[in-house]
Design the sequence.
C-alpha cells in the first residue's frame, strides 16, 4: 500500500488566475492550498494566466483546440514528468494529457458539482450522458459538493456504483471575512450574483425588487454577472428601477458589495451547492433562498427561506430585513456563525485525505 506525503497532482483543465465562475473558484482555491505540500499542475493555461503556487504550461491554450490539446500533451511528456499520482478532472472530459497519464496509472478523481444539465435536459453539445457515465466509471474517487448532489447522482447514474469507489461529500469553502466593525453598516441595497438564465430565476428576483421599489424609491439592486440583456434593461427602465450591473467583478469589489448589501437574492430553483450563500453570510449579507436541494444543507437553520417563485413573498422578506433592525442583526450574526463551517482550508484538507484514501483503499 502507498502512503505518500508529497503527491504530484494534475488538475486536468484550464487555470484562471482571477476566476469568476464557481467551478473555477473551486479549483483555483484548492490547487493553491494543496500546493503547499504537494506538486500541483494544470494542463491548460488560459490567456496570460500566472500563478506562484501552481505550475502551468509555458504557452496559452489556442485554437484549433485539437492541435493545442496535442501540443500540451507533448509538452508534459517531454518537459515536465512521466507520471502524476492524481489526475483531478476539472471539466466533463479528460484531455489528451489527462488520458495519457491515466493510461500510465495515475488515479482519476472527479468532483461533481451538480446534475443541472441532467435535470433541465441540456442539448447534446452540453450533455452526452453516455460519455459522462463512461468517465465516471473510470474514476477511482468521486467527490460531491453536497449530499443533495450525491443523491441526484444516484438517480441519474444508477449504473455507476459508488460502493466500489472512494466517494465523499466535501463542502466548498470561502475566504471572505467581514471586518467586525462594518458588519451592520448597510446601504438600502440588494444583491444578485451569478448567472441569470432559466433555473437561476432572476426574473423572480427582478419582480420582487419591483414590488419593493413601489414602497421604497431609494432601494437599489446590484447585479453581478454578465451585462444586462435588452429585455432586462427594458424592464428596469419601464419601472424606473435603481439598478446597477457590475460585470466580472474582482473579489475585492464583490466583498464590498456583500458587505454593503442588506440581502443576497439567491432564488435559484436548482443548485449543487450555492457558493454565493457562503460568501454572503461570511460578509454579513443575509441570503434569501428557497428551502430545497443543497440550499437548506448550506444554510442550515440560519437561512432566511422564501418561496423562490413568489415575488411578493420575497419582497415581504426584503422589507422585514430593511425595517426590523434587531431581526436583521440576529440574521447577520447567525449567518456569520454558520459561515465558519466553510473554509477552503477545510475543503482542501478533506480533498487531500480523499487522495490518500485511494492508495489505501
Sequence:
Amino acid at each position: 500500500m502507498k502512503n505518500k506525503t508529497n503527491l504530484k497532482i494534475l488538475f486536468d483543465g484550464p487555470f484562471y488566475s482571477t476566476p469568476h465562475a464557481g467551478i473555477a473558484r473551486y479549483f483555483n482555491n484548492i490547487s493553491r492550498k494543496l500546493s503547499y505540500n504537494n506538486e500541483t499542475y494544470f494542463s491548460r493555461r488560459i490567456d496570460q494566466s500566472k500563478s506562484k503556487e501552481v505550475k502551468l504550461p509555458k504557452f496559452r491554450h489556442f485554437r484549433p483546440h485539437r492541435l493545442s490539446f496535442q501540443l500540451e500533451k507533448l509538452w508534459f511528456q517531454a518537459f515536465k514528468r512521466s507520471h502524476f499520482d492524481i489526475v483531478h478532472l476539472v471539466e466533463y472530459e479528460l484531455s489528451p494529457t489527462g488520458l495519457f497519464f491515466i493510461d500510465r496509472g495515475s488515479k482519476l478523481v472527479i468532483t461533481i458539482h451538480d446534475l443541472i444539465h441532467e435535470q433541465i435536459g441540456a442539448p447534446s453539445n452540453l450533455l452526452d450522458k453516455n460519455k459522462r457515465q463512461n468517465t465516471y466509471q473510470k474514476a477511482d474517487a468521486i467527490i460531491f459538493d453536497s449530499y443533495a448532489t450525491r443523491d441526484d447522482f444516484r438517480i441519474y447514474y444508477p449504473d455507476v456504483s459508488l460502493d466500489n469507489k472512494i466517494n465523499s461529500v466535501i463542502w466548498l469553502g470561502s475566504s471572505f471575512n467581514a471586518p467586525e466593525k462594518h458588519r451592520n453598516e448597510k446601504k438600502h441595497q440588494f444583491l444578485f450574483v451569478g448567472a441569470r438564465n432559466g433555473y437561476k430565476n432572476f426574473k423572480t428576483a427582478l419582480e420582487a425588487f419591483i414590488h419593493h421599489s413601489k414602497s421604497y424609491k431609494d432601494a437599489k439592486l446590484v447585479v453581478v454577472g454578465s451585462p444586462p440583456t435588452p429585455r432586462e434593461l427594458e424592464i428596469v427602465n419601464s419601472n424606473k428601477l435603481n439598478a446597477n450591473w457590475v460585470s466580472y467583478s474582482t473579489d475585492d469589489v464583490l466583498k464590498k458589495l456583500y458587505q454593503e448589501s442588506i440581502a443576497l437574492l439567491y432564488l435559484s430553483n436548482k443548485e449543487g451547492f450555492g457558493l454565493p450563500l457562503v460568501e454572503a453570510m461570511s460578509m454579513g449579507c443575509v441570503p434569501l433562498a428557497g428551502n430545497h436541494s443543497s440550499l437548506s444543507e448550506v444554510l442550515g437553520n440560519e437561512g432566511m427561506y422564501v418561496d423562490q417563485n413568489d415575488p411578493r413573498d420575497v419582497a415581504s422578506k426584503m422589507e422585514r430585513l430593511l425595517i426590523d433592525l434587531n431581526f436583521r442583526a440576529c440574521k447577520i450574526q447567525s449567518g456569520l456563525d454558520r459561515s465558519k463551517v466553510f473554509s477552503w482550508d477545510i475543503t482542501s484538507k478533506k480533498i487531500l485525505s480523499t487522495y490518500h484514501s485511494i492508495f489505501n483503499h
Observations:
- Residues 29 and 261 are 25 Å apart (CA to CA).
- The mean pLDDT is 93.
- The domain at 180-339 is CATH 3.40.50.2000 (Rossmann fold).
